[in-house]
Amino acid sequence: MHSQHIIYKKAETLSSKLSEWRRYLHRYPELSFQERNTASFVENELRDITDIQVFAGKEETGLETGVVGILKKGEGPVVALRADMDALPIQEETDAAYSSQNTGIMHACGHDAHTTMLLGAAHVLADKQSSFSGTIKFLFQPAEETTDSNGQSGAPYFINHGLLDDVSVAFALHMDPEFTPGHIRLHEGPSMANVDTFQAVIKGTGGHGAYPHLGTDPVWMLSFVLQAVQGVTSRKTSPLTPAVISIGEIKAGSSTNVIPDHVKIQGTLRSYDKAARAHIEKELHQAFSIVESMGGSYELEVEKGEPALNNDKEAVQVFQSTIEEIFPHFIMKDEPYGLGGEDFGYMADKIPTAMLFLGAGFTNTTNKGLHMPCFDIQEEILPVGVSLLAGSAIHYLR
Fold first, then answer.
1. Which residues pair with 196 in a beta bridge?
2. Locate the Peptidase M20 dimerisation domain: which residues (predicted)?
3. Annotated binding-site positions for Mn(2+)
4. How confident is the model at residue 300 (pLDDT cuts 50, 70, 90)?
5. Residue 21 · residue 119 · CB < 8 Å
6. Residues 215, 168 share a domain
7. Are residues 185 and 242 part of one domain?
8. What is the predicted pLDDT for the residue at 1?
9. How many Cα atoms within 13 Å fall on the side-chain side of residue 261?
10. What is the tens place of the pLDDT at every residue in 72-93?
């Protein structure tokens, strides 16, 4: 039997354990930078695996809740496999027996499954029958979803701690509720977006609601800015360039008869490449500068978030070959994953990486998308994910 098929057989023998792990993690989700119980669970499971060195905590990983396992079998390159561990501030609305026990917190993005699959991959790869020459790092990363007071999510801390310094390539996967098991999205090049945010203030003089002509009205000026902002992507950017600007919050005034002296606006900017990222920011300033011709002024601050996830050509080929060897009947879709963000993009900026989206959804996907309170996955894909992570590492190192 081909070695890659043996990997799936090994993963299948873990099925009940994988389900048990995933349901425990789903039942007790934790927010970004607070994954103490999750990290402890992962650390304990890793320490039970022979030949895996375990590193945990801030001194050893760069983050209090970070956990890293290292498996070395002979000389050779270093491959990293990464999973995120944090949950979201969402009240779960599923009726699953394993639904969240932590009020207002839920694994609505599948990180419980990612963590479970990486634990499974560690078991499979540590098995004496798994033949490769090199080193595998299992990166259990906190805080993919949100940033801390320094504006950083989890990946930059792992990078700054040197965890990627000796790594040749990194692989990761993500749950995909848009497709059922048996489907995989895998794309070379930009696959998820640069994620930036902006905060702006339009300033006028304010005044009495009955006498608007005696002052400068920032709400009136805002109406022109909104049109100009929407024009940045529809008229100032090539239709062939993926880009989105969305305004998520507008705040102005507190009285029916008082024209406020300022309006606050904030939103998000999404793009795939560095040129588009810079172009959108430049045009956003132009859009807000309209108010200067109307007697107003503005302040605009753009905060850079995670960079676009850029899948490396050779790393994608490793994933593709692994899929073809283990799951030749799977349907592959070569398309980007959308304009959502993923802090694995920070790692992709440093070393060759590839992330795939693994179909895990139900036939009826209504209200079961990512970041939704009814999100769930089909657990039959747990050993599939284990096989893809373990198989890609072996394929690269053999």
1. 269, 304
2. 197-288
3. 109, 111, 145, 174, 371
4. very high
5. yes
6. no
7. no
8. 44
9. 2
10. 999 999 999 999 999 999 999 9
**Pair 283, 293: CB distance under 8 Å:** no
Q: How confident is the model at residue 128 (pLDDT cuts 50, 70, 90)?
A: confident
Domain boundary among 271, 304, 337: 304
Q: How confident is the model at residue 367 (pLDDT cuts 50, 70, 90)?
A: low
pLDDT over 90, % of the chain:
95
Token pair of 398 as six digits: 């053999």
Residue stretches of the annotated binding site: 109, 111, 145, 174, 371
Domain end residue (candidates: 262, 283, 304): 304
Average per-residue pLDDT for the chain? 97
- pLDDT single digits (tens) 26-49: 999 999 999 999 999 999 999 999
The structure's pTM equals 0.94
Tokens of 213: 């002509």
- Both 156 and 206 in one domain: the answer is no
Work out how many domains the chain is built from and give that number: 2
Query: What's the per-residue H, E or C state across the chain?
Result: CCHHHHHHHHHHHCHHHHHHHHHHHHHCCCCCCCCHHHHHHHHHHHHCCCCEEEEECHHHHCCCCCEEEEEEECCCCEEEEEEECCCECCCCCCCCCCCCCCCCCECCCCHHHHHHHHHHHHHHHHCCCCCCCEEEEEEEECCCCCCCCCCCCHHHHHHHCCCCCCCCEEEEEEEECCCCCCEEECCCEEEECEEEEEEEEEECCCEECCCHHHCCCHHHHHHHHHHHHHHHHHCCCCCCCCEEEEEEEEEECCCCCEECCEEEEEEEEEECCHHHHHHHHHHHHHHHHHHHHHCCEEEEEEEECCCCEEECHHHHHHHHHHHHHHCCCCEEECCCCCCCCCCHHHHHHHCCEEEEEEECCCCCCCCCCCCCCCCCCCHHHHHHHHHHHHHHHHHHHC
Same domain, 274 and 313: no
Computed from CA positions of residues 359, 360, 363, 369, in that sequence, does the dihedral angle turn out positive or negative?
Answer: negative
